[in-house]
Specification:
globular; OB fold (Dihydrolipoamide Acetyltransferase, E2P); 3 helices; 26% helix; alpha+beta
Length: 110
């Protein structure tokens, strides 16, 4: 006698290895790149430890594309970035501040 829940349970168990392989093959998901947003550095303010970034939509913050000022998690980034640099970054809200928590400079186009 078959139980009604056995068939869906078996189907789910058989699908798990395929889903796991799909995730492993998704390089962007593996590194969290899917959460990164494209932007362009407009200003580096070393004294205030802030970056002004013109950016695309920040989905995790429910924020549309705009230009705004961010604090930075790592002040060493301020020595490596300059106005005009293209970047991919992730920002979080910490208290009342928006903080860049991850940032990667993009290669310059020739």
């Amino acid at each position: 006698m078959k139980t009604p829940f056995l068939t869906p349970l078996l189907a789910a168990a058989l699908a798990l290895p395929a889903l796991a392989q799909q995730k492993a093959d998704d390089h962007g998901a593996h590194h969290g790149a899917a959460d990164m947003t494209a932007g362009e550095i407009r200003k580096v303010d070393k004294d205030a430890a802030k970056l002004t970034i013109k950016h695309g939509e920040l989905k995790n913050l429910d924020m549309p594309a705009m230009t705004m000022v961010f604090q930075v998690k790592d002040k060493a980034w301020l020595d490596k970035l300059k106005a005009g640099d293209k970047v991919r970054f992730k920002a979080e809200k910490e208290g009342s501040a928006y903080v860049v928590t991850v940032i990667e400079a993009q290669p310059k186009a020739d």
